[in-house]
Amino acid sequence: MTTTTNNQTTARTQEQESISQSGAQVGIGIITILSAMIGTWGVACLIGGLSQYGVTGMVKGWISAVMGL
């Protein structure tokens, strides 16, 4: 009787660990996808700014933003 109880407890523990590991993998996947989307948006904004203002305009704008001018 003791052996049966121990086997059932071990199976439940492994099942819970498997579920939590799957949940963690889903969370990491979501974070990765959102990071890629944010990075793509940043590159698109940089390309748009460069095409509209050029390199010197972007540098001047960055310096004025940092210095508060």
Q: Quickly give the structural class.
A: mainly alpha
Task: Name the average pLDDT.
Answer: 85
Point out poorly predicted stretches.
none
Radius of gyration: 26 Å
Overall form: rod-shaped
Main features:
mainly alpha; rod-shaped
Summarize the structure.
This protein has 69 residues and is mostly helical.
Give an overview of the whole structure:
The chain is mostly helical. The protein has 1 helix and no strands. It starts with a helix and ends with a helix.
Q: How are the secondary structure elements laid out?
A:
Blueprint: H1 2-67
